[in-house]
Each structure stands twice: as C-alpha cells, then as structure tokens.
Amino acid sequence: MNIGVIGSGSWGTALAILLSNNGHQVTLWTRFREEAEMLENKREHVKNLPGVRIPEGIRITTQVQEAVSGKEILVFAVPSQFTRSTAELCKPAIGKDQILVNVAKGLEEGTLYTMQEVINDVLPENRVVVLSGPSHAEEVARGIPTSVVIASHQEETVLTVQDVFMSENFRVYGSHDLIGIEMGGSLKNVIALAAGVSDGLGYGDNTKAALMTRGMAEISRLGVAMGAKAATFNGLSGIGDLIVTCTSMHSRNRRCGILIGQGASLEEALAEVKMVVEGVYSAKAALELAHKHQVEMPIIEQVNLVLFHGKSPREAVFDLMERDKKFE
Ligand SMILES: NC(=O)C1=CN([C@@H]2O[C@H](COP(=O)(O)OP(=O)(O)OC[C@H]3O[C@@H](n4cnc5c(N)ncnc54)[C@H](O)[C@@H]3O)[C@@H](O)[C@H]2O)C=CC1
Ligand SMILES: O=C(CO)COP(=O)(O)O
Which of 76, 201, 274, 308 has its CA at a distance of 20 to 30 angstroms from the CA of residue 58? Predict the structure, then answer.
C-alpha cells in the first residue's frame, strides 16, 4: 500500500520503519526542514532513535501534498497538541476514501476531545481508526516483539488496518471500543507521571503497585461513564499500556515524574526529557472530564495539584493515603 506517516518524532519514525519493512511504500512527513534534513542525510533519527537505520525506501518530505496525495492510509503521529492543526494543514490534500490512523495518545484541552474525535471534527467524511497499546518506539524500531490494538466502529476497516501493520514482531488485535481504547491510552500517561513521582521520591514497589492499581480503577471509572466497556481496560490499551508506561525506562511520562519527585519544577523536568510528555497535557482535561461525568479521580486530582499548583509531591502522596476509608 501507499502510506503517508504524518509526524516524524520517535513514534512516527518507528512506525514508518515497521511499515516499510512490511513492504509498503512509505512517505514520512515532518513540518520542520531541519528534522527532514537530519532524517534524509543521516538515515537515522539521531536524537530520538539513535542507532536505528531508516530504510532507503522511506521518502522524507516537508511537503504536505507529497505526503498525502495518492496514499491509501495516513498515519497521524504528531503529539496530541498538534493533531488538530496538522489535520487542518493536511485537509485540502485529503480525499474522503483515505483511512486515517491516529497513534497519538492524548486529550484536547478545551474541547476535551480524544484524538479520534479531533480528527473526525476536522475531517468528518473520513474513517478514523486508533492504534494504541504498550509500544515504546525505541523497541518497535528495533523489531522487539510488541502487541497493540486497533479500534474502529467498522469491522472491515479494523481488518484492513490490522493487515497493514501486522508482522512477525508486531501483533495487532482489533476492537470496536474506540472510546475505551483512547481513554486507556491517554489517561495511563497521567498515572505514569504519578508512578514516576513515587520512584523519584524514593518510594518502593508497593507504592507504585498501589498507584497503578488504583489509577486503573480511576481510568476505567471515567471510561465506563463515557461509554467504554469495562473489559477494554483489562486489555493492551488499558492495563498493558499502564504497565509499560509506569515501569519502562523508555517512558517520557515516567521520567518526567521521576524528575519532579526528585525536586525539579515541571518546566525543568520537561526541558530535561526533551520529547513530548503527553500526560502533562492530558491531566487537566482528565480532571475536567471527571467533574463533567461526576467521577472520583483522586490520583489524577493530586497529579494536577503537583503539576500546576505547586503542591509538594510528598504531601500529595500523604493526602492520598489519608483519604477516608473505602471498599475496593
Ligand atoms: N514514543 C513512543 O514510544 C510512543 C508515542 N506515542 C504517541 O505518539 C505521539 C507522538 O509522540 P512521539 O513521536 O514520541 O513524540 P516526539 O517527542 O518523539 O516527537 C515530536 C515530533 O512532533 C513534531 N512536531 C513538533 N511540533 C509540531 C507542530 N507544531 N506541528 C506538527 N508537528 C510537530 C516534530 O516533528 C517532532 O519530531 C504522542 O501522542 C505519543 O503519546 C504512542 C506510542 C508510543
Ligand atoms: O505510549 C507509550 C508507550 O506505549 C509511550 O509512553 P511515554 O510517552 O511515556 O514514553
């Protein structure tokens, strides 16, 4: 197939490599000339995926028309804050038969939309599917066995996109629970920030296991209130992605949390991590959704207080421990 990958950060580049290795014709688009030159000249994403060769077959471009026209599938891989502006930029070149695959994990501030909803808002005539699950770019780019899930309301589209991405090292499940898959993928980032903070404070495995388990309870409570199936949160885009993001050395959200737990400010932590830390952008939207759907999300509330209101991480953990007694 002819495929355009829109966004050449870690994830877009890793997926472009996977798709090219699967035999597809891949064009990788970036908005930035310097990034395109680095990818083209070095055939490597020097900053984000050092040591991973970009196959010669992948075309690199900054031209939207070249990345979009004639492609059967477009993979949207820019960070969630840029998904709307990028979809708008591409819109004049997009035809209604092209399948759009969103791989960003986040919520839009203000509208509180998931990324599928954002893309659908800009391009209402296109089919939009979502790819999510435990899949760090650093490992996918090196062909390390990985499983993800693709969600759409249309069975046929799921089956088509599964075939496109599946390989001996990349197993793709299908799902019809779009909202469940997207809420799992975006909210685990906020819980991973909390897990990182706990590690940064020097707390132990017990603390992190508690944050992950009770964090999952928060994610599924909100997801179900928004129409998701509870079982989805036991899957790859639920507990699977929560496990990898809260425990992996590759996780930007966890690393950002660790730095904050060690005493860095949010700005210092973001500057140190350098790559996108989606949980920071989704945290506020998650809390607003919790209020809108009248769902209790105490961990996500404390993450917001630490990130945006100067609360000390140690005090946040203390306040979580001191809440009224509950039944599990
Ligand atoms: N890195 C990973 O392992 C995974 C990332 N994701 C998700 O994929 C999305 C992208 O993340 P990464 O590739 O890791 O980010 P990254 O931090 O590696 O790259 C960000 C890229 O965004 C692009 N960008 C920056 N400003 C832009 C703008 N104004 N307009 C258009 N593009 C712009 C640049 O090309 C930059 O390379 C995020 O939502 C992330 O949660 C999902 C699964 C795995
Ligand atoms: O979504 C991811 C892995 O599945 C990436 O997580 P981080 O953004 O925390 O690195």
Answer: 274
